[in-house]
Amino acid sequence: MITIEDCIGLSGLTREEIDAIAEHEHLPEIVAAELGNYLDATRDGRREIRRMIEDDIAAARAHGQRERVAVLTLTLCHFLKEHGGGEHAATHHGKTRDARP
């Protein structure tokens, strides 16, 4: 049986990144993991993930959720470091990911 942890691990994203996608798109975590995996495969997709996290930060800030802003900001920093946020090819498990548009 495959668990949510397995799906998150296979997505190439962290739980926090998946949670941000799920929150932004109002999706169950398992669907967000698949969407994240799909988006992470291209530069435009990584830009979309970055935008989702930035939108979530803005929404949390607007609602005065300081702790959530902090968690999402760290999530964004990690995503940019590991995936490039769409600015360049990202590395994934030691391999350069496809940077096709």
Description:
By secondary structure, the chain is mainly alpha-helical. The chain is built from five helices and two strands; from the N terminus they run H-H-H-H-H-E-E. Helix 2 crosses helix 3 (29-39), helix 2 (15-25) crosses helix 4 (43-62) and helix 4 (43-62) packs antiparallel against helix 5. The model is unreliable at 88-101 (pLDDT under 50).
SSE diagram, text form:
Layout: H1 4-11, H2 15-25, H3 29-39, H4 43-62, H5 66-83, E1 91-92, E2 95-96
Antiparallel strand pairs: 1-2
Helix pairs in contact: 1-3, 2-3, 2-4, 4-5
The N- and C-terminal alpha carbons lie at a distance of: 35 Å
Low-confidence stretches: 88-101
Q: Note the quaternary state here.
A: single chain
Total number of distinct structural domains:
1
Protein structure class:
mainly alpha
DSSP strand count: 2
Alpha carbon gyration radius: 13 Å
Query: Could you tell me the mean pLDDT?
Result: 87
Spatial order of strands in the largest sheet: 1-2
What's the order of the H and E elements? HHHHHEE
**Overall spatial form:** globular
The biggest beta sheet, please? 2 strands, antiparallel
Helix share, percent? 55-70%
Summed up, the helix count is 5
Strand content: under 5%
